[in-house]
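Follow-up to my post from last week.
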Amino acid sequence: MGRAPCCDKMGLKKGPWSSEEDQILISYVQKYGHGNWRALPKQAGLLRCGKSCRLRWINYLRPDIKRGNFSEEDEESIIKLHEMLGNRWSAIAARLPGRTDNEIKNVWHTHLKKRINKNSDDIICKKKKSDSKKEFSQKRHSTCSSTTTNVTDQSGAPTSSSMQSSQPSSSDLSSVAETTSFAAEESNNNVDDNKVVVVKDENNMERQFSEISSNFLEIDESFWSEALSVENSNTTYDPSEFSYPFSSSSINSVELAYDYGTNDTIVHDMDFWYDVFVKAGGSPELPEF
DNA sequence: AAGCATGGCAACCGCCGTCGC
DNA sequence: TGCGACGGCGGTTGCCATGCT
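User reply:
Got it. Predicted complex:
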């Protein structure tokens, strides 16, 4: 069953590309483009399969390829992106202009994975930081004013009441961020995992965030760096491409990642989320970019 | 200097999703 | 609706360079 690999065709060359082959491919693509990879080698006079041509072009011959060693910043970006996206090399590459998925994958396996393991001590430190954030979150219950309501969905998924349909336009986001404020009172000072914070924006529109402290702990540097990357991409993002929320039970994450969960998803300005996060009791020391 | 081990990286393989017929 | 062609992706392989003994 299944299609035979295209390179199984008789007479097709495999292995490293010669400079002559490279030149043929480059000049052909520059002249005619690469509308059909399978047909390309035949038309260009290359004894390669289309897949091989495509790979060679994408990973090596493309004019916008940034060659050379990865900078420290690049490597940090990869580590953070991998933390958020996992082994989705193409998604990571899309956020690093000029770098290919193959290159990033290689760098990860040869350098960064080892570095991560080596830095496991740092992860422990990060955990301690999260613990202090939790402490901060609990402490604020005695000082921060807000209203709370019960979350009714047993699965932990956002309830319909917490997924509001009214959405600000993208252009409104900055102003919303500046003026978001808490509703005036808190009915219960105890930490209760079934409560949500109700935040009102400048239009007096209620916006709900759960107070499940463990969910708050998921909103760490990774969240902010991903939010930043989404913001910098300057496009409407695809929720499926966004690693937050990790699960439907992460009510805060849902609320943060989606603009109240409608189909017309809008990404809030990161300042907005930071404002909400801090006002909701997140450590003001975070994020650290 | 020779042989072996290890690392780095280009390229390949096979699976999957999408699209057109 | 089913099927094949195709592109894209992630995992893996294998070659070559370098380091070590």
